[in-house]
Hints:
Blueprint: H1 7-32, H2 36-64, H3 72-120, H4 125-132, H5 138-164
Amino acid sequence: MEDKSKLVKYAATLGLYMGVYWTLKYLCVIFGGKIEALGTLYMAMTAVVPFMGYRFTIIYRAQLGNDRSFSFFHGWQFGVFLYTFAAIIVSLSHFYYYRNILGSEGISEVMRQSLSMLSEAKIDSRIVEQARQIVPTPFQMTIQGILNNILAGAVFSIPVALLTKKRNTNPNT
C-alpha cells in the first residue's frame, strides 16, 4: 500500500522552493528588456524547471522509504501539487507586476500589440473583433497564469511520473 500522508506537506514545501525560483525567473523577464543577458538567463532557468520537478519527485519518493512502491499516479499527483503550489507563490509577483508596474495602460498596450499581430497573421476578422472586446484585469491575468502553470505542470509531471515510478521491493510491506 502506498503512503500518501506526506504528499501535500512535501509538495507544499518543495513547491515553495520552486515558486521562489520561478519568481527569480520572472524578475529576469521584467528586467530582460533592459539587460539582454537576463533574457538568456531566463531561457536557461526555464530549461531547468522540468529537471527540478524530477529531482523534487525523487526527494519526495526517498522520504517515503526505499522499500515502498511509488506508482505512476502517485508521482503524477505529487507533480501536479508541486506545480500548483509553485504557481500560487509566483502569482504574487505576477499580480504585483500587472497591477503596480504594468498598470491598465500597459495591459491595454500589450492587448493592442497582440491584436495587431493577430490581424497581421490573417486571423479571421471576427475572432480579432471578439478579442478586441476583452480587456483583462490584473486579477484575471494572474488567475490565467496560475491555470497555465498548473496545466504545464500536469503535462511535465507525466514523464517525471513514468521515470520515478517504483515497484515494492519488499513483499512483506
